[in-house]
Amino acid sequence: MLTYDYYCEVIAFNIKQRREIKGFTQSEIAQCIGVSRKTILDIESNKTSLKVKTLLKLADCLSCNINELLYEPSQALSTGDNIVSMLSEGGIALIGTKKEA
């Protein structure tokens, strides 16, 4: 079974990859969601916890569905569904546990 740490790494990677594909800087995304550039750096480096509200704002700024940030493109959508299920069951921190964004 895949661990929470694995899912957190996937989410951090997907956020960074989506931002780069869209051609946005960390500063632009930070401004869009109302956080500092350092917070975006920490999110993309999996050094901070990510609130669901922040994840939703990121998906909106990156013009993508939240599921696109929750699962690996090579995996079935069920991985993202598993994360959503875990969230509804226990309200886990999405990325790490060091500090909240």
UniProtKB/TrEMBL annotation:
Signal peptide: none annotated. Residues 15-69 form the HTH cro/C1-type domain. InterPro entries: Cro/C1-type_HTH (IPR001387), Lambda_DNA-bd_dom_sf (IPR010982). Keywords: DNA-binding. This is Helix-turn-helix transcriptional regulator.
